[in-house]
User: Fold this.
Amino acid sequence: MSAPPDLKQQQFLRLFMASEPAVRAFVRSLLPTLNDANDVMQEVAVVLWEKFAEYETHEDFRRWAFGVAKFKVLSWQRDRMRDRHVFGLETTELLAAESEHHATRLEAQRAALQDCLHKLPTEQRDLVHSAYAPGARIDSLARHLGSTAMALYKKLHRIRLLLAECTQRELSRKTEQ
Amino acid sequence: MSDPLREQWLQEYCEGTATAETTALLERALQEDPEYRLHFLEYLNLDQALSSASGFAEKDAEPAPAPLHLQPGLLRWAGLPRWGALAAGLTLLALGPWAVHALRSPYAMVTSTTGNGPREGTSLRSTQVRFEAGVVEFLTAKGARIVVEAPADVRFESADTLRVLRGKVAADVPPSAKGFTVLTPNGDAVDLGTRFGVDVPESGDAEVHVFQGEVIAQATGAQTKQSLRTGEALAMHNGVSASRELRSAAFIQPDEMPQLSAGLAWGQRARAQASLRALKAEPALIALLDFTDNTNLPGVFRMAQGRWPGSFAPEFVHQGDHLKLDVGADRLWPQLTLSAWVRLDQLGSPYHSLYHTDGWQSETPGQVHWMLTHDSKMRLALRGNSLAPGSTEKQGFPDSHTSVLPQRGRWVHLATVYDADARSVRFYLNGQFDKETLQEVAHPARLGPAQIGNWNRQDRKLSGRMDEFLLLGRALNDGEIRELYLSGNPYH
Assistant:
């Protein structure tokens, strides 16, 4: 803690910004919904800053952040075990390890997503944007589109699978090059 | 990965609708099949990335959650004045209209905001950011601190590049962000690891000012680049660049932001407005210009932002810029209080006019000239007055003891109280009594046609902004001046 607070804050924000998408994806993979992931992510960010004094600069920040995030996820699961269907400790540990192991691949996938989104037919792309827009609700979106929530969920699922295939293709194409 | 049942579990889990049974089945499959595990991780990775790209799908369409507030204990621990801003930044909620396509790391993040700019914590990636009031501070992914003042229209094109269509931009660029570039319609500025400002007004030339270090500037269409060093400034127009005087006060710099936003959070603006209302009811009031209600003042100047987001203040930039004011000519004033909030640029060359009545003739004794001298002290000169015997004044006029030089580039409150009956001139800086000078001859003050920011002899330019100019026909005491400062102070 020899650096002045402002420098420390700057250093933290820079490291945090660089790792944030990876940590967020990590948290999301261990929790049932985006809302859950967002709640836990807020806590993770605060703890990271609180503990930043203990962070050694030679450590890998992302790795450190994953550790903190895993701890937060586990306590979230413990608190909700009774009223929510959450993964058990064993699965969470396994997914956390795997998530960390594949971090680079997942990052490359996120990077490839933009191109894949552009390749989607306009109708599907618009649907993704509407469904993931801030404050969007699937039931009201379905009403608006003259469809049902269930049909919309199915459509979105198919689109996510298409995007997963597309990003896989992009990644293997890049590896071959 | 085409087992339809497994795909369905995945879908239900992702929607948050999986039953206990489905969750158990999913868990077993995840534990047994590494390929399915990877597919699961990729699927949820996409779900998260799509969500981040669009902001965030909120619970039940509730309004965006308020920025996170932390317990005071943390605040003390952190020792940071802007903890609220930082904490909000940490959460990176990326909500609201500025939420952008953050599929990859953001280019910059909002670390502090006043007025109607994007909220703290917003992460940005090539989104157009427009705001009409206030100041926004960004931190780029490479660690440059960028403060943008309204009215502004800017866009980060990368973590290294900011395009500015309008606005005042101050950049503090550490070595890690060397090469940070500001693009304007008139030309570009490339930073070589330093502090600099770029002013892109609504109309007129874009200007580059270097506070410290070195910047390479190139006017659009120009063949050559120009190196600017500490204290130098340049205007760019039609492929041609011309030297300018450094105007540091034109820019709100990163170190000023915390106090400004804390001032707002502390309710200083409401306090200032209450104080203005009280002043307007003063029976002895001669003039009170807050520049937000008085918009049609004659003169040559441009309007910039005042001490508060969305308020206004005249900005004097060029030699001869001025504001005309004709008040109080109907009588003489044995007591007079002059006060103003000013934000000054470079000082000391040779006089800066705060308020100069036109002319300076022996047949009009008591004419008032209020200014800053070449050694950056406040001066109140009344025509025909003389110093009391034994005065220590070296230049023949009542001057303040303290120089306002260290206050350059920040809002500072200046006040002078004249009392002809007591034969005294009293100076105040930021509400603090500074010095009293006694007069032997003390005429009552004579007002009338006057200029702020210049004298009609054209050699007393003011460089900077002025807010809340007050002329009062009575002598305020020390406590009242202190109150005037405290209630109008934009900082905390």
Summary: Residues 55-103 of chain B have pLDDT under 50 and may be disordered. Chain B touches chain A through 77 residues (CB under 8 Å). Chain B has three domains: 4-53, 72-253, 266-488.
